[in-house]
């Protein structure tokens, strides 16, 4: 059965690290929202925080479009993004129904103090304008991930990534 693995969570929870290692271990392509955003920002010669927000909105649309094309082709896929926007859960559920796939949503979580530390100390592409933001954006205030469709695996990322990947692999 075709599989879609969605890796989601707030900024600084380890989504990208987990998705990269899981992609290599499963030998499955991973589409990453920030990779798309960073390249778009460069190609469009963007420079401001407003540009970053525009690039972010476009990158989400591109991620969803590219994912849907791959799902139409029947391949297994990993996608990584916060997935906290209105309509995300419904879109994922619709894909599950439309393509008859196994949907596994992995929600990354970590203590707020660790998340903030990661957010302010990690190296990031200039397109994110982290230094221009007053606080760590927290799209999780209303917990949009509480109603994720499909199989949901919640992982605390305050441990070695290989341990997390092994836990995920055992569950899927």
Q: Return the CATH architecture.
A: 3-Layer(aba) Sandwich
- If you compute it from the alpha carbons, what radius of gyration comes out, rounded to the nearest whole angstrom? 16 Å
The overall average pLDDT, rounded, is 88
| Structural class by sheet pairing and helices | alpha/beta
Distance between the termini: 12 Å
Q: Give helix and strand order, one letter per element, not per position.
A: EHEHHEHEHEH
Low-confidence stretches: none
CATH homologous group name: P-loop containing nucleotide triphosphate hydrolases
The gist of it:
This protein is an alpha/beta fold and 172 residues long. It has 6 helices and 5 strands; from the N terminus they run βαβααβαβαβα. Helix content is 47%, strand content 16%.
Task: Explain the overall architecture.
This protein has a single domain, classed as P-loop containing nucleotide triphosphate hydrolases (Rossmann fold, 3-Layer(aba) Sandwich). Helix content is 47%, strand content 16%. The chain has helices at residues 15-26, 33-43, 49-72, 88-99, 112-121, 161-171, and strands spanning 3-9, 30-32, 77-80, 102-109, 151-156. β4 (102-109), α5 (112-121) and β5 form a beta-alpha-beta unit. α1 crosses α6 and α2 (33-43) crosses α3. It starts with a strand and ends with a helix.
């Amino acid at each position: 059965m075709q599989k879609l693995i969605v890796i989601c969570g707030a900024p600084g929870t380890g989504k990208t690290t987990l998705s990269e290692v899981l992609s290599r271990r499963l030998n499955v392509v991973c589409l990453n929202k920030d990779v798309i955003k960073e390249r778009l920002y460069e190609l469009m010669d963007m420079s401001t925080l407003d540009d970053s927000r525009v690039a972010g909105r476009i990158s989400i649309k591109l991620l969803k479009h590219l994912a849907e094309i791959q799902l139409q082709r029947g391949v297994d896929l990993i996608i990584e993004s916060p997935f906290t926007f209105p309509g995300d859960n419904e879109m994922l559920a619709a894909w599950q129904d439309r393509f008859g796939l196994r949907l596994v949503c992995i929600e990354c979580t970590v203590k707020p103090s660790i998340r903030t530390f990661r957010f302010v100390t990690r190296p990031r592409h200039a397109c994110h304008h982290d230094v221009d933001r007053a606080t760590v954006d927290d799209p999780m205030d209303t917990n949009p991930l509480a109603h994720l469709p499909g199989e949901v695996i919640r992982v605390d990322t305050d441990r070695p990534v290989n341990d997390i990947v092994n836990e995920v692999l055992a569950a899927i």
